[in-house]
Amino acid sequence: MIIKKEHALALLNAKHQEEKGLACQITIKAEEDPYIELELQNLMAQGNSPIEYVLTYWGRNLVCLLEEMINKGIIPHPSQWNESFRWIGSEVISMIESSIRSGDLTGDLIFDALKERGLAEEVHQEKKGWLKKINDYAKSIYEIYKNAKPRLEISKELANYIISIPPGPADVNSYL
C-alpha cells in the first residue's frame, strides 16, 4: 500500500463527493493516475462509468482515519505535505508490523518516522517510565493493509508470455 500526497487528496475528494451523494468524476486524464493507483490497491472502485470512482469499504475506513487525524491536529492536511512525502508505504507498514510484534513498542530508529506520520506516541507507565509505542491509528492502518487485497491486472501480452513459458524444471514431455 502506498499513500502519497496525491492519493490522500484523491481519497478526501472522493469522500466529500460521496457525502454530497455523488460519485467522484475525473474528466482530466492527468488527474486520473492517483485514482487508478487507489483502485489497484482496492481502496477505490470504478463507478457506473469509466470516469467515476467510489470508495471501497477499506478506502472509506482509511479516509475516515485520515480525516480524524487531520481534525485532531495529529497530522497536517495533505495539501500541506511535501510532494515527495509518503504517508504510508511498504517501509511504514514494515515499521508498524515490527512494532506490533514487539508488543506495540517502537525502536528508537523508527519512532521519529512513525511519529511524523501520526502513528506513534510516547506513553508514560508508572513502573516503566516513558515508552515509545505505536497508537491505534497505526494498528488500524495495518488492519486495512492486511485486508484490502490489491487487484492484480494481467495484460494480454503478459498472459501470452506466461502461457508460452515451460511449466518449470520438470521434463515438459512428461506432461504431454
Q: What is the domain tally?
A: 1
Mean pLDDT across all residues, rounded? Answer: 89
* N/C terminus separation: 41 Å
Total number of β-strand segments?
7
Low-confidence stretches: none
Q: Provide the helix percentage.
A: 40-55%
- How much of the sequence is in beta strands? 5-15%
Largest sheet: 3 strands, antiparallel
What oligomeric arrangement do these chains adopt?
A: single chain
Order of helices and strands: EHEHEEHEHHEEHH
Spatial ordering of strands, largest sheet: 2-4-3
The SS-based structural class is alpha+beta
The gyration radius over C-alpha positions equals 20 Å
Count of helices?
Answer: 7
Shape annotation: flat
Which descriptors would you attach to this protein?
45% helix, 3-stranded antiparallel β-sheet, 7 helices, alpha+beta, two-stranded antiparallel ribbon
Give a short synopsis of this structure.
It holds the Pfam family DUF505. The protein has 176 residues and is an alpha+beta fold. It has helices at residues 5-19, 33-40, 57-71, 90-101, 108-116, 136-147, 156-164; strands at residues 3-4, 24-25, 44-46, 52-55, 86-88, 120-125, 129-134.
